[in-house]
Amino acid sequence: MKAIFFFLSMFALLTQELIGCTGVQLKAEDGTSISGRTVEFGSNIEMSVALIPRNYQFVGNIPKGKGMGYQSKYASIGIYCFEEQVLMDGINEKGLVAAAFYFPGYADYEAVNQSNAHQAVSPVEFPNWILTQFATVAEVKEALSSVIIAPTVSKSWGTTPPPMHYIVYDTTGASLVIEPLKGKLVQHDNPIGVFTNSPTFEWHLTNLRNSINLNVYNVDPISLKGLELAPFGQGSGLVGLPGDFTPTSRFVRATFFSAAALPSKTPEDAVFETFHILNQFDIPAGVVREKEKKGFSYDSTLLTSVKDPKSLRYYYRSYNDQAIRYLDLNQFDLNSESILHMKVEGKQTALDISKSLFR
Q1: Which residues carry out catalysis?
Q2: Residue among 88, 47, 20, 50 at smallest CA distance from 346
Q3: What CATH topology corresponds to 26-344?
Q4: pLDDT for 109-152, tens place per residue?
């Protein structure tokens, strides 16, 4: 039985490997903390950009009955998926950022009963609860004991509760990882601001020690038995940097790229620098595949988003349209009575500059 359980667990982990997201954090010279992430999935996710206004009422979606009832204290903008109008990635009016990342093979939610149902939200609702209720990472930490994540099945996401873990950033630059492990919400301060998928965050931090030989500076030539050996070109200090798209390799790569980024003069500069870094994690359709009985499925970067807590802007671009767009929280009525939304759609175009040439 143990062998069967192990096989099934590994099968579940491997068959969900076509899901990968990468998150990074940069700081501008004025101290503004910019965060960004990619969204990858093995099938198309219908996404919409949306505004959640203040004083909007939510009820947690749980396996049976009603979950936590809560009212939005802070307005937020970001992305929701399919038809579930709860933000899974966004920023609120206090500059707090929260996002869900896939966590296959490890997410283990708490069972719901009559005594704790009033504390429960679903895996996809958890970031929405954070965004609408809190202003800082410290507040989120203090409130975690008051909530549970229920193993709620969402028809949009499949036949099992979507396995998620979460990251939170605030305007001070603080970053918090929250992982549902063995039915409990385990939290970790995240000093590097980097996040990917399975395995656990602690494992990723330990694994970084295998890459401490990497260096952004080129290595010096050496003499080997009288033979002079010099690097072929630039980048020799990063020989051995993992370049594949597994979560473990992306975590290492994202750590070194974000740590090596030159300081940005303004928050807006840092926004575009974050997009540049996340370009390194962009997965073209067909590069990462999973064999199936008939054909294959493939991963691709459906969306890339960057959040600026100073301007309160949510920037994004999609696979089908690489033009960067943004929502500005300052331009909305934050006390609107309804959720404002628009599907993420677009078609890639190119700008014709032929007539711009001059002598």
Answers
A1: 21
A2: 47
A3: Penicillin V Acylase; Chain A (3.60.60)
A4: 999 999 999 999 999 999 999 999 999 999 999 999 999 999 99
